[in-house]
């Protein structure tokens, strides 16, 4: 009797764990800015580089 209850409990736990899976998707966003500031000398110019990188992770519950 105790063994049957344990088996039913284990089977129910496995079914519940298998039903609640999440699908994860990743995407990214990259921005790069280059700013020309002007000439500093006869042959060189001044520039400024900046920007950002964004990484997104989205999870959705799959039933």
The main pleated sheet reads as: 2 strands, antiparallel
Outline the low-pLDDT stretches. Answer: none
The 3D shape can be described as rod-shaped
Q: Report strand %.
A: over 45%
Q: Rounded to an integer, what's the Rg over CA atoms?
A: 28 Å
Distance between the termini: 33 Å
Number of beta-strand segments: 2
Helix and strand element order: HEE
Overall pLDDT metric: 76
- Strand adjacency order, main sheet: 1-2
Judged by helices, strands and strand pairing, the structural class is alpha+beta
Task: Please estimate the helix content.
Answer: 25-40%
Give the helix tally: 1
Can you put this structure into words, describing what you see?
By secondary structure, this protein is of the alpha+beta class. The chain has one helix spanning 2-19, and strands spanning 21-39, 45-62. Strands 1-2 form a two-stranded antiparallel sheet. The longest helix has 18 residues, at 2-19. The two termini are 33 Å apart. The model has no long low-confidence stretch (mean pLDDT 76).
